[in-house]
Design a protein that fits this description.
386 residues, mainly alpha, two-stranded antiparallel ribbon, elongated
């Protein structure tokens, strides 16, 4: 992409996103189970008969039923102590995880919309620093966030989503899904969205991330919002939780494979209007209440995809860039940033805090030293004519 003007780079990014969506949908559909309903299953059936129709493995079904992963798969589940109510609840839960192929295209379209706004539309061509307070108005961002919650959340359901895209790869490695190929393709799709535009998938399009952002926008608890959680604290919690997930999932701790700690706090269940458990309901409620005064608490402290996309920020193609020749370290961007992302970037840290491409920093710099653009292109001087 080096040597191409910004406009062509954006169109090339659009082509990449479209191709990624096609590959992800194709991989997911290749292992789709035929349409089924909860009433199609009885306790007289075995896990060997039930699991393929739900698009999972016998091990995954056993885990959902509260049985050991090596429980006999050929026996009727009734003989294993499973009741009709228990089976019905598990089937409904697994059917709720069935993915909408359309959602991949919506994700890609909204990411592209955010990218075009940040690179081309947020700051009009020829607009000098004197107009900087008019740059990057909030309403387009709010509009995309509302679409993300309404369409990628409630309209199309919980799956797919970035968090599950990350977790399901690891679940496949312990045999909880029939094929790892589709899960790797889905994760690669979300990772590509994170790389094309610096975490735009998290900052603009992820439905639960968008919901937290909208709640944070409410004009309350402003004093609390001026205080930021130290990144060393939030990321330590997030990394530690990810490590616990791996230890439990692979049976290193507990001696029983298949336990996914994120299942007990999955906020995306909100979009199926099914909390599933008290712990999930508490996690959703806590994230939304705390989110009134703390920026994206679930993203900061819990989300495994948020952790992985933070690492992917190092190779993102479009991102916030600081012109070191113009920056006077006045701190305007640091105050505007809801996290310690701007602080880390101004200080030149190798691993600064997550940047969600929220655009808050892009119209506050008095020296016009902050831009959003292609990583390989040096920021142009766009001072007002004298």
């Amino acid at each position: 992409m080096k040597g191409l003007p910004n406009r062509q780079r954006v169109w090339l990014a659009a082509a990449v996103l479209a191709a990624g969506a096609i590959v992800a949908v194709g991989a997911v559909r290749s292992e789709d189970a035929p349409p089924v309903a909860a009433s199609d299953f009885t306790v007289e059936m075995s896990m060997k008969e039930i699991a393929p129709r739900l698009g999972v493995t016998g091990k995954s079904l056993a885990r959902e039923l509260g049985l050991p992963l090596d429980a006999p798969k050929g026996k009727p589940v009734k003989a294993l102590g499973v009741t009709e109510d228990e089976l019905g609840h598990v089937v409904e839960h697994l059917l709720g995880h069935r993915e909408s192929g359309l959602k991949y295209y919506v994700f890609a379209a909204l990411v592209l919309l955010g990218l075009v706004y940040l690179v081309r539309l947020g700051r009009p061509d020829g607009s000098g620093p004197g107009d900087r307070r008019k740059w990057y108005p909030r309403w387009p961002y709010i509009a995309v966030l509302v679409l993300a919650v309404a369409v990628c959340g409630f309209a199309l359901g919980k799956s797919p989503n970035p968090m599950e895209g990350a977790v399901k790869v690891f679940k496949s490695l312990v045999g909880l899904y029939p094929s790892i190929t589709a899960k790797v393709a889905a994760f690669a799709f979300f990772a590509a969205l994170a790389v094309v535009g610096n975490k735009i998938i998290c900052g603009w399009v992820c439905p639960f991330g968008a919901l937290q952002e909208l709640i944070y926008h409410l004009p309350i608890l402003r004093r609390l919002k001026r205080r930021k959680v130290p990144f060393a604290v939030s990321n330590t919690v997030r990394v530690g939780l990810f490590g616990v997930m791996l230890l439990l999932l692979f049976g290193v701790v507990g001696g029983r494979k298949g336990l996914v700690v994120y299942h007990f706090m999955n906020p995306f269940n909100l979009f199926n209007l099914d909390a599933e458990s008290i712990s999930v309901a508490v996690a959703i409620g806590a994230a939304l209440v705390i989110g009134l005064g703390v920026y994206r608490p679930f993203c900061q402290f819990v989300c495994p995809f948020g952790l992985l996309s933070w690492l992917l920020e190092r190779v993102s193609l479009f991102r916030v860039k600081i012109d070191r020749d113009r920056c006077t370290t006045c701190g305007a961007c640091i105050r505007a940033c809801p996290l310690e992302a701007a602080k880390g970037r101004v200080a030149g840290k190798a691993l600064p805090a997550d940047c969600f491409s929220c655009a808050r920093c892009l119209n506050v710099c008095p020296e016009d030293a902050i831009h959003y653009g292609f990583v390989g292109r040096k920021p142009e001087s766009r001072s007002e004519p004298t």
